[in-house]
Design brief:
With 50 residues, the protein is mainly alpha-helical. Helices cover 44% and strands 0% of the residues.
Length: 50
């Protein structure tokens, strides 16, 4: 018997889908803008340290 998780489907993130998602989003708040800037300043993707 399959679970709902087995039935999850994905949609390719085409330029049209991306543009639609961005158009639906609210602009970032000032706090979100600050967090985005701080995160970008940290550099590349996070890494686990042993």
């Amino acid at each position: 018997m399959s679970s709902p998780a087995d039935q999850i489907k994905s949609v390719p993130l085409t330029p049209a889908v991306y543009d639609y998602i961005v158009a639906q989003a609210e602009p970032p708040t000032p706090v979100q803008e600050r967090l985005i800037a701080i995160t970008r300043a940290l550099g590349g993707p996070p890494r686990c340290r042993p």
